[in-house]
Structures are given as C-alpha cells and as structure tokens.
Amino acid sequence: MTKQLFHILVFIVPIIALLPWSPESRRIPFLGKQSLVQKPPNNLVADNYTYEIRYYEQTLDHFSFDNLPNFSQRYLINTDHWAGPSRLGPIFLYCGNEGDIEWFALNSGFVWELAPRFGAMVIFPEHRYYGESMPYGSPEEAYKNASTLAHLTAEQALADYAVLITDLKRNLSAQASPVILFGGSYGGMLAAWMRLKYPHIAIGALAASAPILQFEDIVPLETFYNIVSNDFRRESTSCFDTIKKSWDVITSVGRKVNGLDQLTKTFHLCGKLKSTDDLYNWLDSAYSFLAMVDYPYPSEFLMPLPAYPIKEVCKAIDNSADGTNVLDRIFKGVSVYYNYTGTVDCFDLDDDPHGMSGWDWQACTEMVMPMSSDKNSSMFPEWDYNYTSYAEECLNEFGVTPRPTWITTEFGGHDYKSVLKTFGSNIIFSNGLLDPWSGGSVLANVSDSVVALVTEKGAHHLDLRAARADDPDWLVAQRASEVQLIKGWIDDYYTTKKAAFNM
Question: Which stretches does DSSP call E strand in 331-463?
Fold first, then answer.
C-alpha cells in the first residue's frame, strides 16, 4: 500500500510513509459539502474580535536581487486595544500557517483575548502562496510549475513577516514596541524559528504544537502513528482492533471483481473509487485529524465535531448492531468526523476547503518529515519510510528532489537541548500529549526561558483556542502559565528600555 503524495501533515502526514503531512495540511481531505469553512462576515472573526484586512506589497525573493515581480500579501490587523507607540504598546503577531489566514484567526481566540490585557496590537499576516497571498496574481500562475513555486519556503515566509512588521512599526513610529510571536502547528514552528532567526525583531514566541524535531531521525519515525493509535486504544481496545483489521478487509474487497464499486457504495463516495490507496488515505486522514482535535468540547476547527470525538467514533464502531461487518462499522465511525452534522450525502476524496495544496510542494522540497508505522504498536498498516520512493514521487509531481537535511541545517534540531540552551531564549513550546504532533516537539524545559508546557489530555494547539466556561482546570492552568511568561518577557523588555533611557 502506498500513501498518496503528501496527503497528510495538517500538519497534517506521509505518501504511506513517503510524504509527510503538513501539521494543518496534508492536502486535508475534509470532504463533504458542508465541510467548507464558514468565512466570518466582513472583518469579523468571532465573539466580537474585529480586524481590518490590509495588503502589503511584498518582495518575492528576499535573498536575491533579481528583478522579480512583487506580490500582495494579505494581513489582518486590530489596533483597538493598542497602547500606542508612546507607551511602547506591544504587538502580537501570529505567524500564518499553510492556509487561509482568516481560518487561523478564527481559531486563535487566545491571541485576541490577551490583546486588551496587554494593550497590544494584533496582526495575522498570511503565509505566501496561501489564501489570497498569491505571487504572480493567481493560484493557477503561482502553482504553475517548479519555477513559479520556487519561492514557497519557510525562510521566505519568515522574511515576509520580518519585513512586514519592521515596515509597519516604522510607519507607526513604533520601532520600540516589543513584538511577541504566536503560532500553532506549522505556524508554531515558524514562530519558534523566527524568534531564533530574528531575535532583534521579536522578543519572544509561543510555539504551540510545533513539531520542530520531526525531521531526519531526531525522533523515532513511528512516533506520530503510535500516538494516534494509542489515542484510540485508550478509548477502546475493540475499536482499535476493528480499525487495525479493516485495512486487510479493504485490500481484500478491492481486489474482487467490482470490489472498488462495492467500496464506493459502502463509504458513500461521490465518485467511483479509483484505488484502495485513495480510501486508505481518506481513513488515515480522519483518524489522524481526530487525534489532533480530540478536544474536551465541541469544535469546528477542522470539521464540526462533538466533545472528545475519538470516544464518539469508537462508540459508533463498537455499538453497531450484532452482525454488522467490519467496513460498515468503520463507515459509521468515520462518519462522526466527516459527517457529524448528518447533512452530507456523499464524500469527495479530493476536497481541499482550506486551500492547503501548497503543502505538497513544501513537503517535496524542505519540509521532509519521515514517518513509518510499526505493526506491533500501530493500528495502521505496517510500512517503513523509503526516501527513494519519496523522492521519486516528488520528481514525478514537481520535477524537484527533496532536501531532507535542509531544515536542520537552516534552523537546527540535532542536539537541540544544548543549542537552545546556549543560543535560545523566550520560547514557550506548548503541547498536549493526545496530539500526534507532540512527539516531534520539545516536551521538557531546556532552560529558564525556553520552556515546555505539556498537558496530558491536551490536543492540537488547544491552548490557542478561545477560552470557554467549560475549559478543564488543566487547560486554564496552562494558559495562565503562558500569560505569566509572556508578561515576564514584556516586563523585562520595559525594564531594559527604561534603564537604557535613564543612562
């Protein structure tokens, strides 16, 4: 069985172990008519969080002097609570991920809620090649070939953020206002890396669910799928066993005459299934995303879901009537993810409602996150990471060869503890252990100022979501710790500035 090219990181995971997902992407196959993101009405995020949409004329290649066309970078800005330049009001900058920036703004209530408390400006710049921030004027032109995609890199995105915030501060005479970075998943990786690469621009970073170690062999390759599997096994061993058994059943049915037609009918697909690999990827995506968003309350981050959705999936699988076959049980289970509202008639395996297809390119160039699945510990089919096959897929798809060691060369990763202890400061790595991406993040304090805040029952950057009356105590405590650390960074900055002024 082979994984379909790059579908899987949102952050999302591998060509069955060839290409990794994007921490919020994997060309996320959300699927279904009602899966399209509900855009907030004009300039409204949610719960009265407002923003103005602006555009910045951005340089396409920050690292050369070629005469290339600029592009229009979208960003969201709110200055309602900003204390202003005379009082050195802080600026909270969320590092845009691999998707539409309004989607991330909608799901990052923590940033909006902190702004009044700190007298902060809030900025959400969009990542180049995503949403409306398209070089060459359109997605069709931007994604045309390897030449037009060449500037879709993490380094260029960080430079975008650095240039934008520097220019904005200059225009507002706010050069002395401190900048705090926020980000979740890939955005969390960018926040941590930006703090390390541009320490003169940002004084600290909250990197939520940021798998900066999910490269080369820094963490065991089976880590991601083991965590997903353990999340399901924790809820129900019979649910785990049914899912584990289902892969062979799908393979067996798919080999029969009219077997693909039978699978199409069983899983209510909109179009005829072309291969069992496509179905594997669809199910794999559901299980992986369920582990990511196994939140303690209902949410609509990826899909409309109930509280603790894995529990509900396993109930649907385990509580099916006696005699229900394995695949019908599986369909009932994944319907909790793909059709919790009950309004979807059929499922489109190629749907990409959040516009994350650019991650395929990133996974084929520098964001090479190796993964594998172990038959003894995983509920997924066994496979070993195969770089040769991975590279062949990338060459066929884009005409490029991946650089699997570039990220660790550019940003580090090996011997990260001693490196961060020596050269890093003011970074929070927050993680919930239910999140499969936590296995590729920093889970222990590195120093007094490079801190890991870990919750046993937390999921994918849950701490960045808006506060709720039913938030569990451990989540309230995690956010309180983050607030205190951020306050300390800002206080230290003000103390240093005051001391310099008084000299």
Answer: 427-432, 450-455
What span, in angstroms and rounded, lies between the C-alpha atoms of 54 and 56?
Answer: 7
Helix axes 223-235, 309-318, angle to 10 degrees: 60
> 10 has which bridge partners?
22
Q: Give all strands of the β-sheet with 450-455 in edge-to-edge order.
A: 52-58, 71-78, 121-125, 91-94, 179-184, 204-208, 427-432, 450-455
Residues 6+ apart with CB under 8 A from 13: 3, 7, 20, 21, 26, 224, 225, 284, 288, 369, 371
**Cα 232 from Cα 10, distance rounded (Å):** 19
Among 286, 368, 390, 363, smallest CA distance to 330 is for 286
What are 440-498's pLDDT values in tens digits? 999 999 999 999 999 999 999 999 999 999 999 999 999 999 999 999 999 999 999 88
Distance CA 272, CA 29 (A): 16
Using CA atoms, how far apart are residues 279 and 93, in angstroms rounded to an integer? 39
Which pair of tokens denotes residue 243? Answer: 């899912």
Residue 295 has φ and ψ, to the nearest 5°, of: -80, 155
Measured CA to CA, the distance from residue 155 to residue 134 in angstroms comes to: 17
pLDDT attached to residue 497: 87
Tokens 């060839």 — which residue? 18
**Backbone angle region of 300, left / alpha / beta, with phi > 0 → left and psi within -120 to 50 → alpha:** alpha
Q: Which amino acid is at 324?
A: T
Share of the chain above pLDDT 70, in %: 89
Residue 168 is encoded by which pair of tokens?
Answer: 């904005």
Triad 95, 20, 337: Cα angle to 5°? 80
Residues with catalytic function: 185, 435, 460
How many of the other CB atoms lie within 10 Å of CB of 166?
A: 15
The dihedral region occupied by 363, where left means phi > 0, alpha psi between -120 and 50, and beta the remainder, is alpha
Q: Are 417 and 436 spatial neighbours (Cβ–Cβ below 8 Å)?
A: no
Candidates 62, 198, 60, 40; CA nearest to 112 is 40
Find the radius of gyration of the CA atoms of the chain.
22
Q: What per-residue confidence (pLDDT) applies to 287?
A: 97
The pTM (predicted TM-score) of the whole model is 0.91
Tokens of 417: 């503890």
